[in-house]
Design a protein that fits this description.
The protein contains 6 helices and 2 strands. It is mainly alpha-helical. The protein has 2 domains: 79 residues, no CATH class; 44 residues, no CATH class. A hairpin with a 2-residue loop joins β1 and β2. α3 crosses α4.
């Protein structure tokens, strides 16, 4: 038993238990909160689907469920799509060359940057 607990794989697993528990817990809490935020007819439709009672799903609950699933898929796709924001407009990365992307990101970042605390203190100290 002593050699089993001193194994590197077991040591790694024991160190990761709290980390994985946190991730699993926050994911589960997010799913529960998302479910609780849905209207009751949609909650009932989800429970019906999970229980496997497909024949009990009404058209009135199937349409919002389909809309919810579609909106989540579209949201995920929009989130993971490579893009850059130029002058407040989202532009896919495939439409502009890489050099332009870097130049635009630099121009936008420098243009919107505000004075830092150190910059303000240096201005006061130097009397600018």
């Amino acid at each position: 038993m002593g050699s089993f607990l001193s194994s590197i794989a077991v040591q790694w697993f024991l160190r990761r238990i709290l980390d994985w528990g946190g991730w699993i817990g926050i994911t589960l809490l997010g799913v529960i909160n998302f479910y609780n935020a849905l209207p009751p007819p949609l909650q009932a439709a989800i429970v019906t689907v999970i229980e496997g009672r497909w024949q009990d799903i009404t058209l009135g609950s199937l349409i919002p469920l389909g809309g919810l699933i579609w909106s989540q898929i579209q949201s995920f796709r929009a989130t993971v799509k490579p893009q850059v924001v130029i002058d407040g407009q989202q532009v896919p990365m495939t439409e502009i060359p890489q050099k332009t992307v870097v130049e635009e990101l630099t121009r936008t970042a420098l243009g919107q940057r505000k004075d830092t605390l150190i910059g303000r203190l240096l201005k006061l100290k130097l009397g600018r």
